[in-house]
Amino acid sequence: MSIRKPKQALYEQFAIVAKALGHPQRLELIEHLAQGTRSVDLLATKLGLPIANVSQHLQTLRRAGLVHAEREGKFVNYRLADNTVLSLFASVRSVAERHLAEVDRIVRGYFDARDAMEPVTREELATRMRDGLVTVIDVRPADEFALGHVPGAINVPLACLQERPPEIDPDREVIAYCRGPWCVMSFEAVAALRKRGFQARRLEDGLPEWKAAGLPVEVML
Amino acid sequence: MSIRKPKQALYEQFAIVAKALGHPQRLELIEHLAQGTRSVDLLATKLGLPIANVSQHLQTLRRAGLVHAEREGKFVNYRLADNTVLSLFASVRSVAERHLAEVDRIVRGYFDARDAMEPVTREELATRMRDGLVTVIDVRPADEFALGHVPGAINVPLACLQERPPEIDPDREVIAYCRGPWCVMSFEAVAALRKRGFQARRLEDGLPEWKAAGLPVEVML
DNA sequence: CTGTCATTCAATAATTCGATTGAATGATTT
DNA sequence: AAATCATTCAATCGAATTATTGAATGACAG
């Protein structure tokens, strides 16, 4: 049957892509790679996994065309193939949020104050920043901040934020953001800020989505 | 670590969705369900697989929230959860087409006359149909045609088309469509029509995408 | 050239997934 | 109620995936 063979072969390829996304830790790797180019052992450190394990997962992602690898001296740096990978991830997330009761349960259980944490849209933030009305804080670790951040944002890693009050104007609203839609850091940051009396909200999604939306990004040299 | 557990749990859910797409035959099931609501053994017949096997795959898809099941008398009818499933599928396809060399190889090998088969866009077809300039044929099996088709299209299943020339005006261009972007039937149909001297082209994608684009669909009662 | 470091490869064991078979369930018909 | 049909469940076996370990490779520093 020459009529069904090519389709079969194509569908096997599509399945390779989907299968590569079918592992929680590979999804987390993608989230980290969305922040910028990263080496294997940096990723291993961030995820708290053995290097060999991370290396294997990265190769699965590479075979699926989701990431590219490039040697630079001793290190091998991985990066996302392009923005379509992020939108694929977003599609998966969207279907899961819509149709899996378990997702709803987790969100309600851990993010129960979520209604009070309605995010600020990117457009709204861009406007209000132009008018100088808000303080924007990036709660990701310093190395991720360095790879790119919202222009004018100040870097207050979540760990620091929870230790001592940040040195920011208490009369201006604070907008916090982190890695992406379900990165818990911005949720925790808003909770910590509010407990200290700040008026705080989250930015929708994280830096990768801000960047993908074509908004300006500041990079530290 | 209360900070990483909810994310982990969410990512496991996202992985369930991705994993469900990670099998060629489940992708094919989705393609068929995109045509409309279908029973288990109808799908089993169409794919040429054992019923129990198809039932299991469908349950995997159900657990991932991609399809819904509904009992109707003796039959259990499955349908796609909603249009976001189709766009998820499209995202997977897009990444695979962009980044997997093997996809390119398959396409070149089997669809080598593809350049000569540049598809007609949905908008173009809608316009030209309004002006009555083209003949539109739906080369899917009759049962799929019955569940919904482009208004005014005539049903000439591929098998029939290859047996004997269709009874259509040889002076008008013929536009053929089938199940979706990589459904080979419309490719074969165009090849067959051209061999018989017709001027023929493919519609981009298939009926599900036409429908998802909000264009009108005719249903047989 | 040797040592060190980052990464990958290779081998193993544990787990999960997939296809197949036959029995069990649920609904309809006689 | 018994028979029939569509579907699911349960159990099996073989195949594929995963985590882990240790050895091999490639690049750089001394």
What would you say this structure looks like, in words?
- The structure is a homodimer of 221-residue chains.
- Chain A is an alpha/beta fold and 221 residues long.
- Chain A folds into 2 domains: 80 residues, Winged helix-like DNA-binding domain superfamily/Winged helix DNA-binding domain (Arc Repressor Mutant, subunit A); 103 residues, Rhodanese-like domain (Oxidized Rhodanese, domain 1).
- The first copy, chain A, has 11 helices and 7 strands.
- A 4-stranded parallel sheet of chain A has the order 5-4-6-7, sandwiched between helices.
- The radius of gyration of chain A is 19 Å and the shape is globular.
- In chain A, 41% of the residues are buried.
- The structure holds a DNA duplex (30 and 30 nucleotides).
How are the SSEs placed, and which strands pair?
The structure is a homodimer of 221-residue chains.
Chain A: H1 5-21, H2 24-33, E1 38-39, H3 40-47, H4 51-63, E2 67-72, E3 75-80, H5 83-99, H6 101-110, H7 122-130, E4 134-138, H8 142-146, E5 154-155, H9 158-163, E6 173-178, H10 185-195, E7 200-206, H11 207-212
Parallel strand pairs in A: 4-5, 4-6, 6-7
Antiparallel strand pairs in A: 1-3, 2-3
Helix pairs in contact in A: 1-4, 3-4
The first copy, chain A, binds a DNA duplex (30 and 30 nucleotides) through helix 4.
